[in-house]
Amino acid sequence: xxxxxxxxxxxxxxxxxxxxxxxxxxxxxxxxxxxxxxxxxxxxxxxxxxxxxxxxxxxxxxxxxxxxxxxxxxxxxxxxxxxxxxxxxxxxxxxxxxxxxxxxxxxxxxxxxxxxxxxxxxxxxxxxxxxxxxxxxxxxxxxxxxxxxxxxxxxxxxxxxxxxxxxxxxxxxxxxxxxxxxxxxxxxxxxxxxxxxxxxxxxxxxxxxxxxxxxxxxxxxxxxxxxxxxxxxxxxxxxxxxxxxxxxxxxxxxxxxxxxxxxxxxxxxxxxxxxxxxxxxxxxxxxxxxxxxxxxxxxxxxxxxxxxxxxxxxxxxx
Length: 318
Fold this sequence. Notes:
This is Sulfonate ABC transporter substrate-binding protein. By secondary structure, this protein is of the alpha/beta class. It has helices at 33-39, 42-45, 58-66, 77-85, 129-140, 155-163, 176-180, 207-212, 214-233, 235-246, 250-255, 265-272, 281-294, 311-314, and strands at 20-26, 49-55, 72-76, 90-99, 103-107, 121-124, 149-152, 169-173, 187-191, 200-206, 260-262.
């Protein structure tokens, strides 16, 4: 997944931070590079004392940041908006990637299109981006959630239930898509590639950390771009590290290459710039906020003021 955005000449300036940062991440190809940063000593190189905290269940990481149990997390825009709607103070400082195919709606044999899901049992982790993707796909097929039998389930459990034949379709993200596709005759009937920009993934900090320790935040952003450059220069070694952390084979991990677009610094800056197209975060945030409100997943309209901070990406040297 890392062939799409090699970045050279990243800043290697160090950040001075005496405080330890606890950073959450989980099984998504756009976030697993943090393991490379840890293994190659890039956090320390940038003056950081970082504890990487792995979450087997992605939603646990969202809750950990929302409750202040960790300092920052790797999470989607939708999930950040849900937390902000609930009163959490969070700041997006980096776009890791966009999902460009690694989120999929996968159906059993005999279901050939999203329109065929009418009346069928579909499992998805409620409130996540795959739920969002499902609703986008249903809307395009002129259906709504009421036209299917929605079965809320954690993503790993949903993929397992699908393989076991307990449900007709599943919404999942990589690497759980690999598990789901083990079911004979199964196939993707919709993917995030069909909805450009709808699923951006970020490094999100507690707002108080950004305010009180900006040097550490800068160090994290610097580290990310150095990590992407290191991966490009040491691809095989990086693939070994990342596939091991993701619990999949190297070949499986490499198969995710086209489904996750790692963002360059310029793509980051373009995304942070206000606009009205799918590439602009403020535009996607408005659409996602409407989704959360319309589905009842958020009781309050998320406050977007101060949510996006491009200061740290701007400070990275090209």
